[in-house]
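Re: the multi-chain job from yesterday

Posting the exact lines I submitted so nobody has to dig through the queue logs.
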Amino acid sequence: MKKIIIAIDGHAGCGKSTTAKAVARKMNYIYIDTGAMYRATTYYILENKIDIQDITEVKKALGEISLRFAINDVTGNIEIYLNGESAESKIRTMEITSKVSDVASIPEVRHFLVDQQQKMGTEKGIVMDGRDIGTVVFPNAELKVFMTSDVEVRAKRRQIELESKGEQVNFEDVLEDLKNRDHLDSTRKEGPLKVAQDARIVDTTNTTIEEQIDIIYQLAKEVA
Ligand code: C5P
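And the result, structure tokens for all chains:
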């Protein structure tokens, strides 16, 4: 089998990361969660009280950010490291989630991260998930998948996931956040969320995680 690039884009909260990670494991590929890169950047910007309207400040902050993915010896999972420290436990809160789309709409932020993502794919054998992977990061990816599902189903699943991590959240707030992010992500000028012309659409409203993984794995085997 030849090594390929698998680009997975789609709406917020439809299981992209879980599915992409499992497909990567099955294929012995690298998995990159680009949402984590936008989230870690947002965390840094909020922590340092950077005014996101002030582009000079934003650029200075980007110059101070170093991101990498590595195995955390304690958890045994691949996690995102921000300036040498795992940021995984800090980047999935509702606070970061509610701000990340604003930060991700800044062109300088996108160029900064897209450039790093493209470098990660030079050897192929990679599954990357996000919003603009098949359209901007890897427009020549051998397999492009666009995942979507009913927004209420996504909100319910996300609520259960957050509650299992100990964060008490209200269904309506989660639903609102997903709708709001999808709107902001789809309407921004730079790298908007949209279906790549040659993407395969996978609707996960009625599928289990195992089924989603299998659908994408079978698609990958067809092209690899
Ligand atoms: O994938 P996840 O939901 O963690 O992504 C968080 C946010 O990061 C998205 O709502 C979007 O604003 C931004 N993002 C992006 N482009 C990507 C990945 C994520 O704009 N490739």
